[in-house]
């Protein structure tokens, strides 16, 4: 990364919004955002380690602080999943817990200033690093398409292949309107994962830009530093609500979509 004196406010923001990419194949056939994959994997491992620590020291008596916190989170997510999904699938609660906790941890990286990653990594020769995985549309689309395949799986399990195909051609207007039925069902199926991905990405990416703008403002004299401190504190407090809310919305909509796929017209 260039020194801060060489960066204009615009180039500074653009720099921090650029991913560390790895090109695979001839002619750049496939580009991988390495920072997104690494940070998402680290947050997933940290989540698993945290749960493992809670279960390793679990007690039937008075729980410790970490065990109590984990139990509160799991009970909350389990109750929300039961309320949104009327079936009896044993997969729903684990899916809900994984989505909520993993997305929550990835979102919370936003609370760490971008330079806390960029400066030490620049010293190691890494020029670009976008730390928040959910601010990358590739990550949010990847999670939403995983939900999409789960939707298809739940529909096939509940209705069978024949029932799913029959409903796809005949609902909602009846068999004689099958061209319109197919079109509407395709739009409905595709719009669900796309809306999931874009909602999470838009909120996280927009929040990242505002944080960078505030950080740039802090470098414009004493008045700018004071204004950046005030605005930064307010935006941070606001994001303490946005970060868990976006994880909750993604989780709840995913469970609702799984439930809808098992309903018969």
Task: Tell me about this structure.
The chain has 265 residues and is mainly alpha-helical. It has one domain (4-261). Helix content is 72%, strand content 3%. It has 8 helices and 2 strands. α3 packs across α4, α4 packs antiparallel against α8 and α7 (178-217) runs antiparallel to α8. The radius of gyration is 22 Å and the shape is globular. The termini are far apart. Residues 1-5 have low confidence and may be disordered. Key component of the proton channel; it plays a direct role in the translocation of protons across the membrane. Keywords: ATP synthesis, Cell membrane, CF(0), Hydrogen ion transport, Hydrolase, Ion transport, Membrane, Transmembrane, Transmembrane helix, Transport. One of its GO terms (cellular component) is proton-transporting ATP synthase complex.
